[in-house]
Amino acid sequence: MFRTTARWIAVFSLVILFASSMYAQCGVERWSVKTGTDSQAPSIDLSTYISSTIYNFHQSTRPASLPSNSRVAPRETNQYRLTGTLIGYKRESDSDYHLVIKDSSGRTMIIEVPSLSCVGSGSPFRSRIGTARSQFDTKLTATTSYKTVTAPVAIKGIGFWDFLHGQTGVAPNGIELHPVLDIQFTGTITSSDPNVIAGYAVAPPAATMPADVVEDNDGGRVQVFRGGDAIANILFHGGAVIEHPRLQIVFAGNFDESSRASVLQIARGINARLRFDELERYGMRNQSLATSVSSVEEPVSGNDLDVQRMLANAVEGGRLQQIDENAITVVVLDANADVAVGTTRDWLSYHSLFHPTELGMPYVVVRNVADRDAFREALLASVARTIVNPAGNAWY
């Protein structure tokens, strides 16, 4: 009986490990720089480091642009040592440990530890990333829920400029340590029980977010549309506007000619909707809304990272053009697609932005629901929100 039970426990454990590996994912945006598989990583001297502070990092001038596969000196070409207090942590869908540290004045910044399964064998950072991951795991357990903690730490890692997309704890200029190569816990660790904060806030009290703002799969926030008025609830908070938008339609999955024609008819007509004209007050020009169709027809399932990966592969393979800063890529999912934004599947459309190249790609994902009025409203809502908030960072 004991042998039979032990055998079933072993089999069950293997099933859990296999399932976990199936759902482990790696990121997309600037991933070679994040993990050290870019061409410049071997030239970084890991035998030395620069002692710095969170304040000093906050004072750094953010670069005008961030190349996809190369580094911006000097921040991204040096190893740094920072001290501070770890106040929160989480394991993200891209397998990173997302950690938030703060200084004595309350300034925060993000540090991240990738999973070894997402780090190429040629990365000079690989062994030290594994060490840092183990150092963290001996003290704390990162899960998909954000947890708060108070833990004095000393960290070594490579500077990294991230795109701003509503990340919890992000420095105002987007500077991080990514990857972390060493993390020492230098004092007493205190944590609540385990004080998982709904809404993923840096510290109590939890941030109150609107019901249509959700966490995405790489630590940011996006706004989803579940139905209702597509235009009246858009609030402009300043920033970039897509003044001359055009739509680039990507059919992701199986579509017959009738479905394709219906989608294109709706897409080409949404700017004729009276409420769409209201966006002109923010600088959008509504004389025309050009629409093109790509040849990408890959089915997508999983989560938003899979959408980004599909688009990045299409750009790299020349099947999708990314040369126009006014283009909004609209990914239309077929009726059978099951895609999550973070852990949320309850949506008709959402919008975000990522960088398959140095040029950002604002994109909308919309379900091809049978109700044509619901599809039209979902497309209109997320396209309109993209125009006034192309970064998709869910400000509100």
Shape: elongated
- Main-sheet strand order equals 7-8-14-15-12-9-10
Distance between the termini: 60 Å
Number of strands: 15
The total tally of domains equals 2
Q: Within the CATH hierarchy, at the fold level, what is the topology of the largest domain? A: Collagenase (Catalytic Domain)
How would you state the average pLDDT, rounded? 85
- Can you summarize the main beta sheet? 7 strands, mixed
**What structural class do helix, strand and pairing data support?**
alpha/beta
Tell me the series of helices and strands, N- to C-terminal: HHEHEEEHEEEEEHEEHEEEEH
Radius of gyration: 22 Å
CATH architecture of the largest domain: 3-Layer(aba) Sandwich
**Into which percent range does the helicity of residues fall?**
10-25%
Please state roughly what percent of the residues sit in beta strands, choosing from under 5%, 5-15%, 15-25%, 25-35%, 35-45% or over 45%: 15-25%
Q: Which spans of ≥5 residues are poorly predicted at pLDDT below 50?
A: 1-23, 193-206
Total helical segments: 7
The CATH class designation of the largest domain is: Alpha Beta
Structure description:
By secondary structure, the chain is of the alpha/beta class. 22% of the residues lie in helices and 24% in strands. It has a seven-stranded mixed β-sheet, covered by helices on one side. The chain has a five-stranded mixed beta barrel with strand order 2-3-4-6-5. It has a two-stranded parallel ribbon with strand order 11-13. Strand 9 (246-252), helix 5 (257-269) and strand 10 form a beta-alpha-beta unit.
